[in-house]
Design goal:
7 helices, mainly alpha, Hemoglobin_trunc, heme binding, oxygen binding, oxygen carrier activity, iron, Globin-like
């Protein structure tokens, strides 16, 4: 019988340390991206904290987001921000670069991008 090494993406990529690396690298990019700057606060500290909680839970780790903020209700929480296809693509590009720099290996890299692409598509609420 084959041994299962990891039960979820969170454990497979290295748990909280990996999430911290990804989020830090991601928001370094978001804070410089001309398409994203208009919809993000100047101080990304709280935004990054919430993202750490969300990604931990989204990738199968502890349910930290729900403990802190309740049900994610992502679309509702993002409705105040004009999320266009261009901004979706910019967000995903920043995440792709963060995953590469954080050295997230296959097959997890691809699975993460696929899951986040579905979520980002759902968040769009404004045409270009």
């Amino acid at each position: 019988m084959k041994e299962i090494k990891h039960r979820n993406i969170y454990d497979a990529i290295g748990g909280s340390d990996a999430i911290d690396r990804i989020v830090t690298l991601f928001y370094e990019r978001v804070g410089r991206h001309p398409d994203l700057i208009p919809i993000f606060p100047d101080d990304l500290t709280e935004t990054a904290r919430k993202q750490r909680l969300f990604l931990t839970q989204f990738f199968g780790g502890p349910r930290l987001y729900e403990e802190d903020r309740g049900h994610p209700m992502l679309r509702r929480r993002h409705l105040p921000f004009p999320i266009t296809p261009t901004r979706r693509d910019a967000w995903l590009h920043c995440m792709e670069e963060a995953l590469l720099e954080a050295n997230i290996q296959e097959p997890y890299h691809t699975v993460i991008i696929e899951k986040l692409t579905m979520t980002a598509n759902h968040m769009m609420n404004t045409p270009d």
